Amino acid sequence: MSAFVAEPRRINPLLRVAIWYAERGMKQRFVPGRLLGWYPRAALGFVVQGLIEASHHRTLSDRIVALVGIAASYAAGSPYCIVANSEGHQRYGISDAELDVIRVAGDPSEIPSLTPRERLAIRYARLISATPLDFPDDFVAELKAAFTAREIVVLASSAAYVNLLARLIEPLGVPAPVFGDQTSGR
Fold first, then answer.
1. 49 in a structural domain
2. Which of 43, 50, 71, 167 has the fewest CB within 10 Å, making it most exposed?
3. Which residues contact 41 (CB under 8 A, 6 or more apart)?
4. DSSP conformation class of 133
5. In this structure, are 163 and 93 located in the same domain?
6. pLDDT of residue 109
7. Secondary-structure percent of the chain, ordered helix, strand, coil, rounded to 5
8. How many domains does the structure of the chain reveal?
9. Alpha helices, DSSP H, located in the chain
10. pTM for this one?
11. What is the pLDDT of residue 27?
12. For the chain, which residues score pLDDT lower than 50?
């Protein structure tokens, strides 16, 4: 399967560098980045946001940010985002059982290995990815009690970035990447 549009023959040199860097890390073609060669201004925004999302967060663990990315990917229903964000989940200490609960939109409180903050972050990512957007007052109070204002913004922007990518990748028909062993359906 290929994308709905062909990659441009010429890509802005700065974008080419960013694509090279992404492909080096992914060890495969970064089709979304290449397709954005048609609209370099949008590509710049995605690249900058992607670099921000990939950076280390002072008070949030990489694990919690990864859980948010995975939860938002499944909630958005984007095969590309699901594969890209679930790949290598073990390196963040995310077990297959935890991934399965997120995949089936199960109740995170059923997994004792998740901390209360992780459970709340998963719920937040799901709410951010739902339509219509609805954030019940009791949930917001719980969120504010568990996370700092900065942490809430990081969690929200992480989930929103996944949703933004899903809303770009799926309408362009970008096939999901293939990493390692995909036989387990993850």
1. yes
2. 167
3. none
4. -
5. yes
6. 87
7. 65, 0, 35
8. 2
9. 13-26, 31-35, 40-54, 62-76, 79-86, 96-103, 116-129, 137-146, 149-169
10. 0.84
11. 81
12. 182-186
User: In 3D, which of 112, 121, 110, 116 has the Cα closest to residue 67?
Assistant: 121
Do residue 23 and residue 79 come from a single domain?
Answer: no
CB 35 within 8 A of CB 5: yes
Task: Evaluate whether 88 touches 107 at the Cβ level (below 8 Å).
Answer: no
Per the structure, the complete domain to which residue 24 belongs is given by 13-55
Rounded distance, CA 121 to CA 115, Å?
A: 10
Residues 29 and 111 in one domain: no
What local confidence, expressed as pLDDT, does residue 134 receive? 95
CA-based nearest residue to 186, from 106, 94, 109, 52: 94
* Residue 68, in any domain of the structure: yes
Tokens representing 154 are 């990081």
The verdict on 71 and 123 lying in the same domain is yes
What does the pLDDT read at residue 1?
64
Structure tokens at 3: 């994308």
Helix (H, G, I), strand (E, B) or coil at 180: coil
Q: Residue 29's pLDDT is what?
A: 84
Residue 79: both structure tokens together: 């095969």
Structure tokens at 22: 């992404």
Cα 41 to Cα 119: distance, rounded to the nearest angstrom: 36
Q: What are the b/e assignments for 93-126, b being 16+ CB within 10 Å? A: ebeeebbebbbeeeebeebeebeebbbbbbbbbb
